[in-house]
Amino acid sequence: MRIVGLSGGRRSGNNELMLKTALAAAKQVCGAELEIIRLQDLKLRDCIGCETCMRGLTTGGDGLCVVRDDDMPWFSAAVKEADALILATPIYDLIPTGTVVTLLNRVLGIGKEYQTYCRTHPKIGAAMALGGSDWINLTEPLMDLTVRNLSKGSVIVDKFVVGHNPAPSMVVLDEAVLERAALLGRRVGEALMDREHAGFAGDSGVCPACHCNLLEPRGGARVGCPYCDAEGTAVIRDGSLVVEWDADKVRDNRFGPAGDAHHRADIAASHKKAGENRERIRQRVQELEDFDGVFVQPPKRDPSTTKE
């Protein structure tokens, strides 16, 4: 067995110390081989939004990103056959680091062969994040989505987000956080030892499908999870706001088979519409290309003085 830890922040920073704690606990349970990939060590170019990968996935192509001259091919090969992935990321202004978000974007083009392998060899997944204050609320869905997209069909067994550790490496003073990281690691190890019965073992959250704590109004008393799209009705019960969730909406959330099929069909229909209106699109684009705007660019830099 092999567990790969993904460190989204600085060397020996808070998130990496949490990750090491979790990995050590997992190894005690299942004896797995451990590896850590520091995401900041990777040269990852930004997604360019060309839609080549999505068109490929919906039309029988390989679904691979057109960007091949960076470390993404190496990274996908390094994590493809891992039995478990644990992501740890710092939180910058409510969300994970730009490095993690870049990875999340690029994973869209990881390819059909990789996705098929993960669906037939499900991974165990977990994620955790630590911020410097209470500005942490939007991180959980993004870190969860990164792990899910890296391992289609995976079982997410645990995740948590905490704050109030702004200084480098100060998390070693917070025994409660380190113990929570160790618990996450033990849950990963236990799931690897009994994959048949593996399931989510973390905090239940508000949403019963993805365990997210975000809600959005959807008209009247209807509310939904903005992450997985489960829906329900908000009611006051014994003085508390609760949600009576629709069983079918929970079952057919974005990350189940029905939700995935709907997503692919939606993308395919949109590309079909674009193809049928190619000439109209070209004409409208040309109208805007003729706009008398000015693009401002930075000065050219001397490569010999540019820091890597």
TrEMBL record:
Entry keyword Cytoplasm: no
Any Pfam family hit: FMN_red
Protein name according to UniProt: Flavodoxin family protein
Taxonomic path: Bacteria, Bacillati, Bacillota, Clostridia, Eubacteriales
Chain positions covered by the region annotation Disordered: 288-308
Keyword Flavoprotein among UniProt keywords: yes
One GO molecular-function entry: oxidoreductase activity
Keywords: Flavoprotein, FMN
Ranges where the NADPH-dependent FMN reductase-like domain occurs: 1-133
Ranges of Basic and acidic residues composition bias in the record: 299-308
Organism of origin: Lawsonibacter hominis
Superkingdom of this protein's organism: Bacteria
